[in-house]
Amino acid sequence: MNLKFSIKDSYREFLILLLCFLALFSLNLIYEYKKYQNFKLTKHLLLKNNIIISSYQKTNKKGKKYQVFKIKNSDFVFYTTSFKDLNLSKNDIINLRIITKNINFKDYLSKNFFVPSYDFHKTNTQKENILVEYFLNQHQNEKIKEFYGALFFAKNVSSELRNDVNFYNIAHLIAISGYHLGLLFSFCFLIFAPLYAFFHKRYFPYRSLKLDISIFAFLLLILYIFLIDFSPSYIRALCMSIFAFYLFSKNIKILSFKFLFLSVILCISLFPHLLFSVGFLFSSLGVFYIYLYLHHFKDNFSKNYIHIVFINFWTFLAMMIPVLYFFPLISFQQFLGIPLSILFALFYPISLLLHLLSYGDVLDEILLALFDFKLNSILLHIPLEIYLIYIFLSFMAIFHRYLALFVISLGFIPFIFLI
Length: 419
Prior knowledge:
By secondary structure, the chain is an alpha+beta fold. The protein has helices at residues 2-40, 105-110, 130-136, 142-153, 159-168, 171-174, 178-203, 209-227, 232-249, 257-270, 278-297, 304-318, 320-326, 337-356, 364-372, 384-396, 401-409, 413-416; strands spanning 44-59, 65-72, 77-82, 92-99, 112-114, 117-125, 329-331, 377-379.
């Protein structure tokens, strides 16, 4: 009787929490729609103090060159083009007019869209944050600057560096997410726990040292989200971590698909634009496949290091088809991403410490050699139908261990096309 009551009570709480999140999502949706209506009031809207995140040159079918700009406004990020030589570059602050006629609510809600524009005027050039400058000025090579800018501050990367990263299938390592948050959280404990322990023993031994350090670490991690400009993958990781910390303090199981589902819904409820974020999707799927492994195989091995190796191999194969759907480059070189993902647990804190000590350039030559190394590759486009069937089978694999193994083994198939 107690067990039945417990299960029934648990599901009641789950549904109440879900309804609260859906209500929050509805309120945010209404708020965004009101902003959208104001946005559409003027067909030729003047936007002031926009920052150019990146710019690059392209050529159309007629052979005419034009400039593509990725620009950040206080409310959204948008792409626009110009056939004129405007002499504008990254970090320039500009005013311009955009034509809002063809922007629908879905585009506006995504906070990332293309819009025609004209009447560009440069007003200033944005200076980097002192901390960002301190880190990036330790490097001479622009590609390495981009790499560390993305790794520590979620800065935009060029198509060249993105291509280099895709050759190793390690985009998840430079997109700040749960992996980084866990390492930063551990780093906070390593630095502050010994200092706090001195005062804790003498003045307030009645308090929980772990709890106090955890709260302080989370405060720092919340401040960090402003420094990296609300990176979608980091938002997922932070919300999930805070939610997990709360549930764990209440002795509620957190290694469950129910917890993951509620965490994703919470993030989308707070930030509806995450519905359209590829980074958020990859981050959520990555955690889902880790949970899928633990769900079926966590009791199969007694040694944690065996799980670390298998989880990295498992997640690599599991994410292959979703990643190829959005980024179709494939190479046998991507298998090197497995050991690199394991080594990253050492590389990240070491490189962070080196930068704090002004020796951030120590590993630059090694990184450049890695980026320059290329094996044969092809572009393999995954049809939408295949992608959706794969995601559906992945969810069904929760209930069947052998189906999970089958789904993950599908990650080998794209490599056949390289032979």
